[in-house]
């Protein structure tokens, strides 16, 4: 009886500090002694309930089961049942088995990890911890590290792309007939969309896609720009910049629904331009464009960056119709992840 009373006190102290293990070790010792005595005395009812408690406490000691309010409640009821059994023995009565208590303890035990699995305890201070299978936890950490590397590479490239796109937008806003600037904008937003898709940054992906579609329509002369369009485009570029900064800081990205709606409204309601004699400059003139178009000459360098990002994400790089990797637009500032910097090189006299 003294052993059981001591065990009940230990259980209460353990419940107050579930992160501590001193009381658990003492409980295992006390119940082992009680179970051995019950076995020698042929008190099988006491013996099987002690064994069930020892299995439950042993699972916690091996980090294959986490404690909870239900855990402590069932353990407390099992201890009280043991005390009732000893009272029956002292009164010379037949000891009643406790199948309900045994069933409840075994249900708790089934919630733990398999006996051959290794667990990882996530400590929560004074609160009960959580148990995770070590292999699953390791794989989850590896995925997080992998995803983090892809996102880091994307952010490194995306900032340069957006900066160059801002410059191309300024050139086009000052000269709406500048087809080279429009082609550069379309390629930049296509590249940004692809990188965001690899890095799984949804807000940037959908906004870049909507802008790409709009620039494509302007290149093909399907839309009449109008006086309000440059301001809408500048707002969209600014929003992209804020989204990239929020991803960099690990913050939740802001909503882009209103901006998407404004861009789509323009695409669906913009009138077609009047026929002109001068055709739109094709997008393929990137390498032969004006000196302000910095994209075409470095296309092959940025393709290496995006192929590396695709490899990190476990996806094949996109391919063009000829079997070669599809060309990605270069960084408007002339830099890629390989550290090459060509934006500040100027042609000789």
Low-confidence stretches: 117-129, 282-301, 316-349
Instruction: Give me the number of helical elements.
Output: 11
Number-wise, the strands total 2
Taking the sheet with the most strands, its summary is: 2 strands, antiparallel
Distance between the termini: 102 Å
Element order, helices and strands? HHHHHEEHHHHHH
Question: If you compute it from the alpha carbons, what radius of gyration comes out, rounded to the nearest whole angstrom?
Answer: 34 Å
- The average pLDDT score comes to 75
Structural class: mainly alpha
Which percent range describes the beta-strand content? under 5%
Biggest β-sheet: strands ordered side by side in the sheet: 1-2
Task: Describe it.
- α1 (2-16) packs antiparallel against α2 and α3 (44-61) packs parallel to α5.
- Residues 117-129, 282-301 and 316-349 have low confidence and may be disordered.
- The protein has helices at 2-16, 22-40, 44-61, 69-90, 99-110, 134-174, 179-199, 202-219, 229-248, 257-269, 299-312, and strands spanning 119-124, 127-133.
- The termini are far apart.
- The protein is mainly α and 349 residues long.
- The chain has 11 helices and 2 strands.
- It has a two-stranded antiparallel sheet with strand order 1-2.
